[in-house]
Amino acid sequence: MSECTVLGLKEELGKENITLVDVREHVEFAGGRVSGAKLVPLDEIEKRHQEIDHTHTVYVMCRSGRRSGEAQKRLRALGFTNVVNVKGGFEDWKNENLPFEKDENAPWALERQVRFVAGLLILTGVLLSVFVHPLFVWLAGFVGAGLTFAGATDWCGMGLLLAKMPWNRRRSAVSCEQ
After folding, report:
1. Terminal CA-CA length for the chain
2. What are phi and psi of 100, to 5 degrees?
3. Does the pLDDT of residue 31 top 90, yes or no?
4. Is residue 176 among the annotated active site residues?
């Protein structure tokens, strides 16, 4: 499996025959991205792969490197011969203080949205169990179980659902940030 660091990617950017594909969701991309990256969310790879030049070296990037590793496998299965996974993803890019761009009116980060909705559901479940019926406490338990599962597996159904919401698909102006 071919991999590089974010510093290795920075050295390659701007060269000919290079394509950077960001496989995160729209809301993540709006919140920050490497300049020139093409957004193709992981779940759209199979239907949109023709938008990516098969003759280029394709660098795939996500938040941490996990989804881009999956994208690398999928692209290879679709006939791409030179696909490089960017280890550490956009989080490492920011940690290295490399420049990035973002939408001025980007929605909250998905992780923040998940924390807000989960907290609201737990609070609602507890309050309803106190003031309406004790069985509403199961709502809080269900959300807690979901958060535990997400932490153990690094897969969050609520985050995937929130990413599909209309407010996370809007487009707005771009600004640069260091």
Report:
1. 31
2. -150, 165
3. yes
4. no
Amino acid identity, position 74: R
Query: What average pLDDT does the structure give for the chain?
Result: 92
Instruction: Tell me the domains of the chain and their CATH numbers.
Output: 3-103 (3.40.250.10), 110-171 (no CATH)
Cβ atoms of residues 103 and 171 within 8 Å: yes
Q: Rounded to the nearest 5°, which phi and psi values hold at 78?
A: -90, 5
- Interatomic CA distance for residues 144 and 128, integer angstroms: 16
**Which one of the listed residues 4, 62, 156, 176 is annotated catalytic?**
62
Antiparallel, parallel or unpaired: β 57-61 and 83-86: parallel
Pairing between β-strand 38-39 and β-strand 18-22 as defined by DSSP bridges: parallel
Digit-coded pLDDT (tens) for 73-91? 999 999 999 999 999 999 9
Nearest to 54 by CA among 23, 21, 22: 21
Q: Strands 174-177 and 100-103, how do they pair?
A: antiparallel
Find the range with the poorest average confidence among 40-44, 69-73, 120-124, 168-172: 168-172
